[in-house]
Amino acid sequence: MPTVVWAMMAAGLSVLIAGLFLARRRFHGASGLDRILVLGPVFEAVALAMFAAEHFFAARDLMGIVPRWLPAPLFWTYLVGIALLAAAVSFIAWRQVQLSAPLLALFFLIIVATLDLPNLPQHFAPHLRDRLYWTLTLRETAFACGAWVLTASLLPRGSKLRIALAYAGRGVVAPICVFYAVEHFLFPQFVPGVPLEKLTPAWVPWPHVLACVIGAPLLFCGIGLLIPRTVRAAAAFTGTILVLLTLLFYVPIFVTEAHTSLALEGLNYVGDTLLFAATLLLAGLGTGTEAQA
After folding, report:
1. What confidence tens digit (pLDDT) does each residue in 144-199 have?
2. 199: helix, strand or coil
3. How far, in Å, are 147, 160, 280 from residue 22 at the CA level?
4. pLDDT one-digit tens code per residue, 32-63
5. Phi and psi for 190 in degrees, rounded to 5?
6. Exposed, middle or buried by CB within 10 Å (0-12, 13-18, 19+), for 242?
7. For residue 60, what is the enclosing H or E element?
8. CB atoms near residue 126 (< 10 Å)
9. Global pTM value
10. Considering only CA atoms, which of 102, 132, 130 is closest in space to residue 272?
11. Which of 253, 263, 276 is nearest to 193 (CA)?
């Protein structure tokens, strides 16, 4: 396997072990669904660490996506890697999250503004390529809003700003979940979770059923995030489903592709799906005792 794949695996596993260990006090201090939600920052950190390692070890490949109007693309590639790693460390150590969470949200919004929106088609067309542009744009937007809700959850309880920011973040994540759910129903032949262009492998039984099994919770989550009484249940249930999807679906796919040219792509799908799962868990924060330092 390429060095970058080993580096991403090592970074992800290291952060996962450290994150679960360091989160044990907050985990035991929470109760019920909050015990699931407190793991959101940990899973977020795992994915961020994986992508940070990719920026360090595959910098010359990734520098090609830096906007042409920015000078020194290699510098920006490494800087993004450092920023992602810093956010991952902050999340697992649970230090300076009040700073790292809004900066991470801003980072994803910058990605949307500089990379996604300029490439977004100006019309709604039924072609696969157009569908993927919307999927990618909404993906980064959801990532930003997940970090946004995390930021809100750290503000004083009962403050109007906390409530407004949390509602705003969930108000964006919710329709994205519904959009992705509809994509699962319309395009069941593609891998579930974040519906991109990769086809579900032939060895996976009943791919259309799997698409519905994932699409239905996403639809439930999209509705549940908008109802105060169901926010935590929707976030915890759907986030857990996607974590299990990562472990039981995408990790096995990566294992089958580990010694092929698709190894890096397979590991990227692991990180993407885990990051989306963490985003949904973060969207449920701020409604209980789960996010207190």
Report:
1. 999 999 999 998 887 888 989 999 999 999 999 999 999 999 999 999 999 888 89
2. strand
3. 20, 31, 21
4. 889 999 999 999 999 999 999 999 999 999 99
5. -95, 155
6. buried
7. helix 59-62
8. 7
9. 0.92
10. 132
11. 276
